[in-house]
Amino acid sequence: MEIDDKLSDNQAIERTSTMRKRESTMEIRCLIKQDGDLYIAMSLDFGLSAQGLTVGEVKRKLEDQIEEYIVEACTVDKAHAEKLLSRKGPISWFATFYLAKLHILSKKIFTFTEVKSNCPTHA
Fold it and tell me: Which end of the chain, N or C, is surrounded by fewer C-beta atoms within 10 Å?
Protein backbone atom coordinates (compact mmCIF):
# COMPACT_ATOMS: atom_id res chain seq x y z
CA MET A 1 0.00 0.00 0.00
CA GLU A 2 1.38 3.42 -0.93
CA ILE A 3 1.62 6.20 1.62
CA ASP A 4 -0.78 9.04 1.00
CA ASP A 5 0.83 12.39 0.24
CA LYS A 6 -1.61 14.16 2.57
CA LEU A 7 -2.75 13.36 6.08
CA SER A 8 -6.40 13.46 7.03
CA ASP A 9 -7.34 15.81 9.87
CA ASN A 10 -7.82 14.17 13.28
CA GLN A 11 -6.30 10.91 12.10
CA ALA A 12 -3.15 9.16 13.24
CA ILE A 13 -1.67 6.96 10.56
CA GLU A 14 0.78 4.24 11.36
CA ARG A 15 2.69 2.25 8.82
CA THR A 16 5.67 0.02 9.23
CA SER A 17 8.29 0.44 6.58
CA THR A 18 10.68 -2.49 6.54
CA MET A 19 13.73 -3.32 4.58
CA ARG A 20 15.18 -6.77 4.09
CA LYS A 21 16.12 -7.98 7.57
CA ARG A 22 19.70 -9.04 8.13
CA GLU A 23 21.28 -10.85 11.03
CA SER A 24 21.77 -7.68 13.10
CA THR A 25 19.02 -5.11 12.84
CA MET A 26 17.71 -2.06 14.68
CA GLU A 27 14.31 -0.40 14.70
CA ILE A 28 14.44 3.33 14.05
CA ARG A 29 11.41 5.24 15.30
CA CYS A 30 10.31 8.11 13.06
CA LEU A 31 7.68 10.80 13.24
CA ILE A 32 6.17 13.07 10.59
CA LYS A 33 4.08 16.09 11.51
CA GLN A 34 2.60 18.95 9.56
CA ASP A 35 3.78 22.50 10.23
CA GLY A 36 1.86 24.94 8.06
CA ASP A 37 2.40 23.97 4.43
CA LEU A 38 5.41 21.76 5.23
CA TYR A 39 5.81 18.29 6.64
CA ILE A 40 8.67 17.64 9.04
CA ALA A 41 10.09 14.14 9.52
CA MET A 42 12.21 13.23 12.53
CA SER A 43 14.28 10.19 13.40
CA LEU A 44 14.03 9.80 17.16
CA ASP A 45 16.89 7.34 17.32
CA PHE A 46 19.45 9.43 15.44
CA GLY A 47 18.24 13.02 15.87
CA LEU A 48 17.95 13.48 12.11
CA SER A 49 15.23 15.54 10.44
CA ALA A 50 13.98 16.48 6.98
CA GLN A 51 11.25 18.67 5.56
CA GLY A 52 9.14 18.55 2.42
CA LEU A 53 5.84 19.44 0.81
CA THR A 54 4.24 15.97 1.05
CA VAL A 55 4.34 13.03 3.45
CA GLY A 56 5.81 10.80 0.75
CA GLU A 57 8.57 13.28 -0.09
CA VAL A 58 9.59 13.91 3.50
CA LYS A 59 9.53 10.19 4.34
CA ARG A 60 11.81 9.39 1.39
CA LYS A 61 14.20 12.19 2.36
CA LEU A 62 14.43 10.94 5.95
CA GLU A 63 14.86 7.31 4.85
CA ASP A 64 17.74 8.38 2.57
CA GLN A 65 19.33 10.37 5.42
CA ILE A 66 19.05 7.39 7.77
CA GLU A 67 20.63 5.05 5.23
CA GLU A 68 23.51 7.47 4.56
CA TYR A 69 23.99 8.07 8.30
CA ILE A 70 24.26 4.34 9.06
CA VAL A 71 26.63 3.67 6.15
CA GLU A 72 28.88 6.60 7.10
CA ALA A 73 28.90 5.60 10.79
CA CYS A 74 29.91 2.07 9.83
CA THR A 75 32.58 3.04 7.31
CA VAL A 76 34.02 6.57 7.54
CA ASP A 77 33.42 6.96 11.30
CA LYS A 78 33.80 3.29 12.17
CA ALA A 79 35.78 4.09 15.35
CA HIS A 80 32.75 6.01 16.66
CA ALA A 81 29.99 3.82 15.15
CA GLU A 82 28.64 2.57 18.48
CA LYS A 83 28.22 6.10 19.83
CA LEU A 84 26.77 7.43 16.56
CA LEU A 85 24.29 4.56 16.24
CA SER A 86 23.03 5.06 19.80
CA ARG A 87 22.54 8.84 19.51
CA LYS A 88 18.98 10.00 20.31
CA GLY A 89 16.86 12.99 19.34
CA PRO A 90 15.27 15.43 21.81
CA ILE A 91 12.88 14.06 24.43
CA SER A 92 10.08 16.23 23.00
CA TRP A 93 10.20 14.12 19.80
CA PHE A 94 9.75 10.96 21.87
CA ALA A 95 6.80 12.49 23.75
CA THR A 96 5.10 13.46 20.48
CA PHE A 97 5.79 10.02 18.97
CA TYR A 98 4.30 8.05 21.86
CA LEU A 99 1.33 10.38 22.34
CA ALA A 100 0.57 9.90 18.63
CA LYS A 101 0.90 6.11 19.00
CA LEU A 102 -1.61 6.26 21.86
CA HIS A 103 -3.92 8.40 19.68
CA ILE A 104 -3.73 11.25 22.20
CA LEU A 105 -2.11 13.49 19.61
CA SER A 106 -3.82 12.37 16.46
CA LYS A 107 -4.13 15.49 14.35
CA LYS A 108 -1.72 15.37 11.42
CA ILE A 109 0.75 13.00 13.07
CA PHE A 110 2.30 10.07 11.23
CA THR A 111 4.57 7.50 12.89
CA PHE A 112 6.58 4.71 11.34
CA THR A 113 9.46 2.41 12.16
CA GLU A 114 12.39 1.68 9.87
CA VAL A 115 14.17 -1.64 10.28
CA LYS A 116 17.80 -1.33 9.21
CA SER A 117 20.96 -3.36 9.47
CA ASN A 118 23.31 -2.12 12.20
CA CYS A 119 26.32 -1.99 9.90
CA PRO A 120 25.49 -3.18 6.39
CA THR A 121 28.27 -4.70 4.39
CA HIS A 122 28.93 -3.15 1.02
CA ALA A 123 30.78 -4.80 -1.82
Answer: C
